Amino acid sequence: MIRICLSLFICLSMIDCLSQPVAGASPRARINLDAGWKFSLTDTVGADRAPFDDSRWRTVHLPHDWSIEGDFDEKAPTGGGGGYLPTGVGWYRKHFLSPKTAAGASVWIEFEGVYQNSDVWINGHHLGQYPNGYMSFYYDLTPWLGKGQNVLCVRVDNSLQPNSRWYSGSGIYRHVWLHVADRLHVAQWGTYITTPRADRESADVVVKTTIDNREPAERDAILRLTLSDTAGQVVGRTESPFHIGAAGEKVVEQKITVNAPSLWSPRDPHLYTLRTSIVRGNKPVDSVTDVFGIRTIHYDADSGFLLNGRRVKMNGVCLHQDAGCLGSAVPMAVWESRLRLLKEMGCNAIRTSHNPESPELLDLCDRMGFLVMDEPFDEWKVGKVKYGYHNYFDKWAQTDLTTFIHRDRNHPSVVLWSAGNEIGEQKQERGDTVLAALIATFHREDPGRPVTTANDDIAADNGSARLPFLRMLDIVGYNYMDRWHERRELFNSPDRQDHPEWKMIGTESVSIPGVRGQPPGLSSVIRAEQLWKFVSLHDYMIGDFMWTGIDYLGEARWPNKNSGSGVIDLCGFPKDGYYFYQSQWTDKPMIHICTDWNPGGKEGKVVPLIVFTNCDTVELLVNGRSFGIQCLQFPRPGNSGAWNKYDHWPVAITTGDLHMAWTIPYEPGVVRAIGRKGGKVVCEEEIRTTGAPAAIRLLPDRNVLRADDQDVVQVKIEVVDKDGHPIPDAANGVELSVEGAGSLIGLDNGDPRDHTPMKSSRRNVFHGLALAVIQSRLAGRTGIIRVTAGSPGLTGATLEIRAANP
Question: Which listed residue (110, 357, 375, 422) is catalytic?
Answer without folding.
Answer: 422
